[in-house]
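MODEL INPUT / OUTPUT PAIR
PAIR INDEX: 1
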Amino acid sequence: MSPADTLWSALTALWVNKLRSSLTILGIVIGVAAVISLMSIGRGAQAAITEDIQSLGANQLIVQPGAATEGPRFLGQGTGSTLTLDDAYAMMDPVWVPSAAAVAPELSTGGQIVAGRANTFSQVLGVTPEYELAQEVTLSYGDFITAGHIANRSEVVVLGSRVSESLFGLRDPVGQTVKINERQFTVIGVMARNETGVWAGVFGETALVPITTAYYRLAVERTTQGSVSVDRINVQVKSPDLVDDAEREITNLLRLRHRLTGGNDFYINNFQDIIDSFEDATNTFVIFLGSIAGISLLVGGIGIMNIMLVSVAERTREIGIRKALGAKRKDILVQFMGEATLLSLVGGGIGVLVGVGISRLADGWSLAGETLNTTFNLDIVLLALAVSAVVGIFFGIYPAMRAARLRPIDALRYE
């Protein structure tokens, strides 16, 4: 039989049993639509997570004290006091770290901030002027910390927007005084509510003071060398392409400064490593979703096998007549395999349209307070169609072989 004859024979056989064929196709439609829609939702979630992490700063490095561990450590507090303000100043030297655009050391502590009868507990960060650029801080009122404040250990503070509202309401607090851990500070600025950058959304609950003031006036821990210790050093790299270079340059510099011969007494958080780790995890999640949806395709394939076995039983005499007229086993095999494959491909095509429609409709839906984002790619369609074709071929093999093995004399005697 020619391919055209095989196709026409398959179409004729399926058309004779329209209802049965339609129900069989429906199983494949549901399976393919489930695979496409769930994988689109999974890809959308993956893209959203990756975008959120990239918004933290794909060109950011966080240097923290402590020995390195397996895998990226995400913004945790370091242990010990191995990093100092002098280390940060050394990183600002373009001779040592030419890939760095800005270096901003940070010393974290907590404090009770009091203004008149109002008070709030807030995180207090000791920072340098470079912090404004490295962390993309924007101000609603006043000015940021200057080099003079660092040199003089000035008792000045830049309040986060929520801290400012807690203490002063909607008034401009610049020039007002507050007490942090019983020490009097003058408010010189207020951070804007719509901050962007690595700490977007966190600045509102934070107060910034000169790093030397935080160390000598507020912090408790001191280094044995008398240097100003820091909890982390934020490094903004000139370009995401230079992140690996910057990490290598910082590592070499700190090992020289700390005179290390063994392991490092610091570790570097590379945001690209974190992004890669999340992408690996979400890829597993997407594959898992596709596998769950693939179960419905398996059920559809069993439906194809079942209907083809019924078709073979009903058409036993037809098979016997065709063999008596000279049809070979290969012709019978190809005929029934063609019918099974056609069922799966028709179901796969309709399933693609349904799945694409569902993914488009689901895009932007709000579910449990979260917005669903779907990402549709051609590879998902190709995968679904390929799987549906394989399902048709696989589950059509046994019925086709059973039909091809029938002896003409037995088929002709079949009632």
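PAIR INDEX: 2
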Amino acid sequence: MPRPSSLLDTRVIYCGDNLEQLKKLPDACIDLIYIDPPFNSNRNYEVFWGETKEKRSFDDRHESTQAYIEFMRPRCVELARVLKKTGSFYYHCDWHASHYVKVMLDQILGENNFQNEIVWKRADAHSDAKQGSKHFGRVHDSIFFYTSSSEYTFNFIYKPLPESTVNTWYKHVEEGTGRRYNKADVTGPGGEAKGCPVYEWKGITRAWRYSRENMEKLEREGRLVYSSTGMVYQKRYLDESKGVPLQSWWDDIGMLRGINRGGERLGYPTQKPLALLERIIQASSNENDIVLDAFCGCGTALVAAQKLNRQWIGIDISPTACRVMGKRLHDVCHLPENEKLWQVGRGFVLRDLPWTEQKLRKIPPFEFENWAVIALGGIPNKTQVGDMGIDGRIYPIGSEPAASGKEAGQLDFMDDWYPIQVKQMDKVGRPDIDKFEAAMIRTKRKKGFFVGFDFSSDSLTEINRFFRTEHIVIVPLTVREILDESIAQKLV
């Protein structure tokens, strides 16, 4: 696919504050923006990262609605700046701050550029409406649709006709073909005064919708039908109907829940269905247009854009999220993370991940754990609390199932793996090694990996003793060794 702009890199995921990254983008360079920023929900989400359902805490809180709007305003100003004149902007939010968001967007993008409030009915019922509560169930999100001007891209999307419409409107069946049709009036709307042609047809003289030549064509094609009184109608066939143009009430795409059919659900609590993003991208962009998601979380917008042959840019502040969406692009879209392939338009790249010891010391502990496990090529453990001394697993080549398809994600049924323990501390001590040894004995592992910034002499002595007496290998790996990519031989 050719590059849409010589000034802009696409198929790139940036890790960091989106405000800083957006300032680096040129003016009017993006065709479609979709954002689903953390809602002002005043609660903590429990996040299950990746198909391995690793439970993590995702902080989604602001001190007040004012703080939330103050956080979002400069970002929306930058997003408006980078939007093309023909571009569209979608802001996904819920009831907590939607009314304030609408006022803010009117000020930034202009009231006249507001096109729709799309109501996404994400559930039939919600547990917040139960006996004892004093409000109605909150089952929808709002998606505010703005444009940069009146010259924006828009592709109509049609939904199938309701069964009731088919049964009542297309109730006639053509003999011989069995095609259902309705009878449409062919008299001229507004009559002769509106310029409709007047002539005699089958003994009836009046203003008609079509010229005589077109009426004769419809007659030859068998598309005219006559009533018992001789009145003529046009056959409009059900199988030629495009359907019903999509309205602003979307109740046909449910939230991701229950059985994970197709492997789409990653366990991320605010993950949106792929079908939802595909609809937005199809409606407001064309192939090779640039789609930007500045709060891209687990990467649904990027996957949808890639599948629909759009260019894309993703930004997220979480290193774990960036790694998860990178893995998802690889698994779902079969797109490799490779600098050389990216340069020729056949891969993607991750930028600005915290590849320094200083940055890695500052990120949250669970982010550090995820970084270390994924950097080793491992799979993060299922639980954060009660992980019994094992933060992740490495599966030797040949033992890991396919990345996609029926067997994907069934790692729990395989017993060929090495445990990983991670500690975000200056020096791993003897007690930490003792706990990992107990976990290895309990799980009957013969080899494991321990990651830390450094190891005390006592810890290294214990690792050696454990090998001599138990014949079990613990490989100590420092963050510096991982960053320097000098760990290949130790992973064998």
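PAIR 2 NOTE: Confidence is low (pLDDT under 50) at residues 40-59, 400-413.
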